[in-house]
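Support reply, case 0932

Customer input (verbatim):
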Amino acid sequence: MLVSRSRGFTLIELLVAIAVMALLSLISWRGLDSMSRATTQNQQRADAVLTLQATLAQWGADLDAVTTLAQTRPIDWDGRVLRLTRRGSDDAAPSVQVVAWMLKSGSDGVRWRRWQSQPFTTRGEWQQAWNFAGAWAQDGGASATGGGYSDVPLVPASNWQLYFFRDNTWVPASQLPTVAPNPNNPAGPVVAMPDGVRLVITLPPGDGLSGTLTRDWVKPTVGSAKSS
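Our regenerated output:
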């Protein structure tokens, strides 16, 4: 009578099986790692897009709300910082604010930043807020960021340029000259708001967005867009 005996795996077969399992595990891990990195990059890009959209919306809102007060500057650019005089956001309590935009270094690197004063109602308070905005641009002193003033870091940026639309053409932004006194309005503004403002900002390479972005703003009273 013959008795059959089951045959086990040899050492070589076991080693081959272990090697195949290890290879499959490695391939699976790499696939999961790639998926995880792609998900992280997509999330970073989505967050960067949302932040940029919100920043540009605020930029446009500030320009839309620029107001002209007697013997004040609605806009001023000195090559580093843009200062604006704008209406307050609370329609129930009319007021005015000064806002400023510039590239500024911080603990989170170089970012496009926005400074905002507290609301005010007198020309003396405007002058104080205007001076504080200039101090913030120069040294970021505590006097310019306390007492109701805010300094918000927005998007990373490596460079920005501004252009004004004047005399039917885009020209590099510069300090606007004072306007000639108007006999019919002796208490008018010191300078006139340009018909358009062009923003050209460079976003550095990174995990989010990069490249050069151009955004045109046209004064609401102007009928047609001035983009080139």
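We compared this against your earlier run and they match. Two observations from our side: The chain has a mean pLDDT of 81. The helical segments are 11-64, 123-138. Please reopen the case if you see a mismatch on your end.
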